[in-house]
Amino acid sequence: MATSSSTSPTAPHAPATRVAVIGGGASGVLTAINLLTTPGGEQVAVTIHEASGIIGRGVAYGTCDPRHLLNVRARHMSAWPDVPSDLLEWAARTGRDVDPQGFLPRRDFAAYLQDSLASVADHRLTVRAGRVDDVVPLEGGGYEIHAAGTVSVADSVVLAYGNQEPRALVVDGDVLPPASWHVANPWDLASLHLLPGDSTAVVVGTGLTAIDTAITFLEEHPARRVVMVSRHGLLPETHVGQQSTAWVSPTITGPLSADALADFFSGQVAAADEQGVDWRAVVDGLRPQAQAVWQLLDLDERRRFLAKHARHWEVRRHRMAPEVAALLGGYQAEGRLAVLAGGIHRVVDRGERCEVHLGRGHVPVVADALVNCTGPSTDITRSGDPLLLALRERGLASPDPLCLGLSTTTDGVLLDPHGQPVPGMYAVGPPRKGVLWESTAIPEIRTQAAEVARAQVASVPHDALGVG
């Protein structure tokens, strides 16, 4: 859906409720779709504030490389939880792959989100280009939204800004300074395109973003080489052919410790294996319980889970498409890709190149680029984002205790620094990871978007809906 900063034709009557959705990626688009389609929402006006002015893309789906694939099967990625075939039907209409077990390019999913919003958009929807840098409470309720030199007013605000930029690389206790070879943002692909055809890149991180970066870099020139390095050196596991047998684990109850949770998972995997059921079925079967299980862990146990067990869970939970795994296997067989554990101990500036000293006795690597793929920054107390700084200064937002995002209620209402709900302020998607843990994938985000939309519609005055 092409967007602009202009407003659609004016509605016959002023809206009863105005909702500002900050962020036009997947979280923002799914929120807007639900606001426009929830029964009773006829008097809700929605404004999406997206810095680029282009909706549906965001960090996850902004890539233009067709080799960057979704890591969830197409049949699970519908924007509508009650219409699981919607993405597949869209793919068929637009001449794309319609395999329900397949993995579409990320850029195709961006197009699907754009088309899905366009299919329900009317005079109630406005898209404004420009980065929001402040939200100001108004006396009597509501908020002023300050963006790119303009000011608008909303009755409520949904923070749907997705993932922040990567955490700054810290090597030997110091933040890595700017340099020609230092690629601080992995989606700054222009820096990688300009490198020589025989160049070497050290990619810091071994997650899905690191994999996409390596694919783009290596596929452009057959003489290039990548060294991927992380603390554990673990790549995401691979999806396999659809399993015919599901696995339903017992409901987990409290009190619960992180170690007990890990033991429970191991026990379920062993029990499934005895019956010839793959461990992936166990992971997928536990997913519906994940948010409830997170609530059973107290704060100290959550910290222990993050420190000891999180990475081992994530590589199984967030798997890569088989086609992607095949590419990586080919690079490794050709000697073009190495995946190492131990992290980075030291980086020496060599002018246009750098010398990277790795842990666990590995030989130093002289690299043309050092790419930061360590994952998004989640600690809003260290964010340089003007909006997050303003929200904290105004007491409208605070970090969750684990600094994985924003402090919210379980249904997405923002909490102030004193733990009190902030009227009319909500969050959807990755900012709620600290509260829910599972909060970054489309199935969870679309559920959150629907819940927040219902809360907004419920706040519309009854007389505006013609209710006596």
| Beta-strand content bin | 15-25%
Instruction: State the major sheet.
Output: 6 strands, mixed
Distance between the termini: 38 Å
Strand order of the largest sheet: 3-2-1-7-19-18
Task: Give the structural class.
Answer: alpha/beta
Number of strands: 19
Helix count? 14
Mean pLDDT: 92
Could you tell me the radius of gyration in angstroms?
A: 23 Å
The backbone outline, from C-alpha atoms, is globular
Secondary structure: helix percent:
25-40%
Stretches where pLDDT is under 50 for at least 5 consecutive residues are: 1-11
Walkthrough of the structure:
The chain is of the alpha/beta class. 32% of the residues lie in helices and 19% in strands. It contains 14 helices and 19 strands. It has helices at residues 26-37, 58-61, 86-93, 106-120, 189-193, 208-220, 258-274, 279-286, 290-296, 299-317, 322-334, 386-393, 433-436, 442-458, and strands at 17-22, 44-50, 125-129, 132-137, 143-147, 150-154, 156-159, 170-171, 174-175, 182-183, 200-204, 225-230, 337-341, 344-350, 353-358, 365-367, 369-372, 413-415, 421-427. The radius of gyration is 23 Å and the shape is globular. The two termini are 38 Å apart. Mean pLDDT is 92; it is low at 1-11.
SSE layout and pairing:
Blueprint (H helix, E strand, L loop, with lengths): L16 E6 L3 H12 L6 E7 L7 H4 L24 H8 L12 H15 L4 E5 L2 E6 L5 E5 L2 E5 L1 E4 L10 E2 L2 E2 L6 E2 L5 H5 L6 E5 L3 H13 L4 E6 L27 H17 L4 H8 L3 H7 L2 H19 L4 H13 L2 E5 L2 E7 L2 E6 L6 E3 L1 E4 L13 H8 L19 E3 L5 E7 L5 H4 L5 H17 L10
Parallel strand pairs: 1-2, 1-7, 2-3, 7-19, 10-17, 11-12, 11-17, 12-13
Antiparallel strand pairs: 4-5, 5-6, 8-9, 14-15, 15-16, 18-19
Helix pairs in contact: 1-4, 1-14, 7-8
